[in-house]
Design goal:
The complex is a heterodimer of chains A (179) and B (819). Chain A contains six helices and five strands, in the order ββαβββααααα. Chain A has 179 residues and is of the alpha+beta class. Chain A has a five-stranded mixed sheet, sandwiched between helices. Chain A starts with 11 loop residues before the first strand and ends with a helix. By secondary structure, chain B is an alpha+beta fold. Chain B has 20 helices and 34 strands. The chains are: A alpha+beta (179), B alpha+beta (819). At the A-B interface, helix 2, helix 3, helix 4, helix 5 and helix 6 of A face helix 1, helix 17 and strand 30 of B.
Amino acid sequence: MAHRRSRPAGRRTILLHLNGEPTEVSFAPHKTLLEVLREDLHLTGTKHGCELGECGTCTVLVDGHPVLSCLAVALACDGKDVRTVEGMADGPLLHPLQEAFADLGAAQCGYCTPGILLTAQALLDRNARPSRDEIKQALAGNLCRCTGYLKIYEAVELAAARMRGENAEPDPESIYGKR
Amino acid sequence: MASAEGKDLRIVGRAQRKIDATDKVTGHTVFADDISLPRMLYAKLLRSPHAHADIVSIDTSRAKSLDGVKSVITGEHLPITFGILPVSQDEHALSPKRVRFIGDPVAAVAATSEEITTRALDLIDVEYQPLDPIASVDQAVMTPDLPIHDYADSGNLHKLIDLEFGDVKPGFETAHSVREDLLFYGGNTHLAMEQHAAVADWTGDGKLTLWSSTQTPHYVHRTLAKVLGLPPARIRVIACPNGGGFGGKSDPFNHEVVVAKLAMLTGRPVKITLTREEVFYCHRGRHPTLMWVKSGVSRDGKIEALHFKTLLDGGGYGSYGVASTHYTGALQTVTYQVERYKFQGARAFTNKPPCGPKRGHGTPQPRYALEVHLDKVAEDLKMDPADLRLRHLVPPSSLTANYLRVGSTGLRECIEKATAAADWRDKYGKLPYGTGVGIACSSYLSGAGLPIYWNDMSQSGVQLKLDRGGGVTVFCGSTEIGQGSDSILAYIVAEVLGLEPLQLQIVTADTDLAPVDLGSYSSRVTLMSGNAALEAAERARDILVKHVAEKLGVPKNHISFADGHVFDVEQPENRMTFAEAVQISEAAQGVIGTVGSYKPPPSEGRYRGAGVGPSPAYSYSVAIASVNVDPTSGIVTVPKIWIAHDVGQCINPVTVVGQVEGSVYMGLGEALMEDMAYRENRGLVHKIPSMLEYKSPTTLEMCDVETIIVEDPDPNGPFGAKEVGQGPLLPVPPAVANAVYDAVGVRIDEVPITPEKVLRAIKDKVRGGTGRYGPTSFPDVPWPAPTVVPPPWEGGDGRAIDKATESETTGGGGARRGG
C-alpha cells in the first residue's frame, strides 16, 4: 500500500481506518495488530488471554469481521477498517450491546468483554434477529470464565431487540432469578 | 447486624448495574497489564526445565553483556523465603539451590524491550543436577527418604491431620447399614482470562509501588516487606481489577517480588506479564484429592457415624495447602446431621506446580465424595435421595460435631424449590435409558472465621469521607475481581445514607489509601467489608441525624434518608438535601469522616485445627442436573441444571444470579472436562499448558441454568446477606455424577467424568461387572495419633481431651483464637 514506508530503526508505517478515524502508526514490522493497538496506539481496551489464538479475548473487527488481533500481522492491516471496543460507543452514547451487557451483568471481570462485544456486534450487523443457537455458534470461539455465557446470550438478544426498534426490557427472571 | 426485615429498603435487593459496569463494557477498566510508565523495563523469568533438580551453577555473564539488559538476578539476590501461610514459608522468589517443578523460576532479567529480555534468558547458563521426581501421592507416601522439603510432618507428607469428634466405632456397629466408597477428584486450574501481570516503581525517596493482578494486596504487601527488607510503610500495593481470579491470584507470587527487586536495582519501573503457559505453572488450583468415605446410617438414612480420609496432591510448595487439607474435612457436617465424625487428611508434596485455593477451596472434592456416597446410601435404603437429605438437615442456630456454628440455613427450602422446579419426582428413576437426573446439596463459608496470619485486628475496614458538596467516598482495602465487591460497598452505604450508588466514589485495593481488607478469597467480601461499610455508614448517619434534627426542630428518631434528602418522616416536606446536611454537620463539628470495622465472632472449637471451617454464616445450595449419556461413545451432555441457592439476602440480584450461573459453569467444567494433566513418562512436564488443550466449556458445552434464589437472612450478614460466589459450584459435579448413574446405571467415582471413563464403566457393566469407574485403593498413610474432641451432645466444650494437643496451634488456619 502507498502508506507503507521505511522509518529509522526498522519501523514501518501503516494507515488504519481506526474507529472511524484515519490513523497513521509506525512500529517494528514483526508486531501483531494486538501489540500495535495496545502498545503503539495505547488502545488498551483490547485484551489478551493467550496470545496464541485460542481464547478470543483479543478479538477486534477488521473490515467488519471478527479477527484475533494476536494472530494478525499488523502490517497486513494497512488501509483496513479496524474497530476496537473504544470505537463502539457513539460519542457519549453506549452501543446497545454495551448497554445490555451493563444492565444484565454480562460483564463480570470484564476482561473477555471487549472481544465478546465486538464478535456480537459483527453477528448483529449481519443478522438482526439471531436465534440462541446462532448466538452460541458466533461466540463459540470466545472463552469467558466468569459468567457461564448465559447473561451474554440474554444481553445479545436484548440488544438485538432494541436495535430492531423494539421496546425491550430484561426478563425479570433473568435478573432476579426464580423465587 | 442490620437485617432486611421490617425495613423499607430502596437499594438493597434492587436489580441494578454494577458501579463499574460502564468501564467494563467500554474498555476503560485498567488491568495490570494496561499500565505503562515512562522508561519502563520489561522483566521475564527463567524457569526450570526439570521437575526436581539441584542447581549446580548459574552463569549470567553472557546475559548481562547483552545490549539493553539492565539487570539479571538469581536466588542470591532474594534469599528470604515467603509463602501465604506462616507455617509454609517455603518459596523463594528465585530458587537458589533446588527446583521443585517444571516452571520453578531460577533467574530474572529486566531489559528495555520484551524481545531483548527473551534473548537474554537464552544467554543464562544453568547447570542442574537432576533428582528423581516424586510424581504421585503414592510415590510421595512410599518415598519419605527423598523429601522435597525438609519441614513436612512426615517425609513427603506435608500435612497430616487426624481428628475425632465422638467415637465412630459404636456408630458403625449399631448402624442399620454401613457403606464405604473410594472417590477421586482430579486437579484443575482457574484459567482466569487475564494472565497475571505486575508493574513495580521505585522512586528516589525510597518508596516502592506495585500494581498487580492480585486478589490479596494486603498479603502481597506483607510479603514484599519481608522479602525485600523494607518497612511496610514504604511499600504501596495496588491491586488492579482482576481479569478473573477464582483463587488463582490469592498467593503472593515470585514474579511480584522479582519486579519489585528489579525496580529497586535499576531505578526504573519494571513490568512483567506472564505468558499463558507460565500461568499454568503458577497454578495454585484444585488439589487432586483421593477420598475414602465410610458411613453408618440408620434405617431412614441418618448418619450415625462418618469417617472421611483424604489425600491431596499438593505439588511442589505449601501455598494454602495446610488450610486446603483441613477444608477437605471441615464442612461435611454443616448440611446433614452427623452424630460422630472422624476425619483424617494428608497433603503430599510432589514435583508439580503447587496446588492451592480454587473456588470452593478444598471443599468441592469432599462434597463430591459425600454427595455421591449419599446417593448410593439412598439406593441401598431404597429411598429417594432428595428425601434422605430432607430428613436429616442440620437445624438452624446449631452447633455441629466439629463445633461449627450454623446460623440461618435455607437448605430445606432449596431442596423443595429445586425438586419442584425440576419435576424431580416425575423424573428420578423414571427416565428412559440414556437420560437421567441427579441431585446434590452443599454449603460454603461466608468468609473464613480467622485471618491467614494470627492477629486480633479487624478483617475488614472502611473509612467514609463526606464532602460538603454531598459526595461520599468509601475507602476499603477490598479487591474487585469481577464479583462486584466495589459495588457492594456502594449499595450498602447508599442504602443507609439515602443516596444512589453511582453518586458515591469508591476507592479500594490500595494499601496506601484504604484500610486493610484481607482480600477477595473465602467468599468473605460481601459479609465482612459489607458489615464494615454498614458500620461506617451508620456512624455517619448518626452524626448527620444529630445536626439535622436540631436544625429541623424534630426528634432524632424522626429523621430519615432517601433520594438524596434528609427529612422528617412525619412531615417529609420538612427536609434538606444530603449536601446541606453534611454542611451543617461540618459547620457544627468539623470535617465529617467515619470508620467501620468487622471481625467475625470467635470460633467455638478450641482444638488444634479448629481454625479452619468456622464462618460467620454458611450459604446453602442444591443442584439438580439432567444428563444425556450416549452409551456408544460415553459422551455426557448436560442440557440443564436447576440450582437453588440460599444467599441470605440479595444485595443486588443481578450479581447474585451472575455468581450462581458462573459457579454452575465452573462446576460443569470440573465435572466433565477440566484436568491438569502431567506426563509422568517425560519428567512430569505439563501435558497441556494451553487454553486450547486444557478443555473448558465453551458456549457449545454450557448448559441451561434455572436459578432459584432463596433468602434466609443470617443475623451475622449485612442486611442478612451470605455468600454466593463459590457455594453454587460445589453441588454441580456430584449432581452430574449421580445423574449419569440415573441415566445408564454406572458409577463414575472420579472427576472429571470423561467419555473414556463412562464407556469403560458401561462396558464393564455389560460384561457383568459392577459398572463402576474409580480408584481402588488408598495408600497406607502414617496417620498421627488422633486429636479427640467430644461433640457438644457428649458434653464437649470444644476442647480436645488430650491436654498436650490442646495447647498447640495450627499455623495456617490459626486455631489459637478462643483457645
